[in-house]
Amino acid sequence: MECKLAVSMMHDYLDDDLPDQQQRELKEHLLSCPDCRAKFKELEQTDMLMFSLMHQNPVASDDLVSRIMSSLPKTKKENAFVTWIKRHPALTAASLFLVVMLMSSVTFWSPDRQLVVRGTDLDQVVIKGDTVIVPSGKIITGDLTIENGKAQVYGEVNGNVTVIDGSLYQASTAHISGQVKSIDQAVSWLWYKVTNMFSEVAYR
Hints:
Belongs to the zinc-associated anti-sigma factor (ZAS) superfamily. Anti-sigma-W factor family. By secondary structure, the chain is an alpha/beta fold.
């Protein structure tokens, strides 16, 4: 038997996992090989030491565990804000989305932008400089939005009329079936954008 094979069999022998035939072969080799015999004694002593350590008084092991635990660095308490974020991930994501949308809207808001007119039937309106006129006898179906300009309504609007950062004049002959909104401050403008955004998402 080679020494390398004998060494590999020693572990199984000490664990009582070696078949009888191989046990006999290992013993014969140990009788004839002083090096393997010395190696086997070392392994046997190590095995006995481990066995005694595992079966000693449990109070010592508890004491060792407590000393190890006390020497470990203390875990820092989580910030209350971080804890709240971990407990409410959906609400946190929605809040971040709203903040990003508001910040992006702020970058695009400017009180001196050019006139912008949005709506349907825009061929029914007359634009003179920064003034948008709905002439008497003309009918606009749908909403009309005017940014950075003046609105003068003499005719009929079957929808909402919104004026952002401007002024609105409604003649006695005018008829507006929807809401009339006048927005001239950045905060109101942002609120208008956000509510419109969510309304558009809801109707898609």
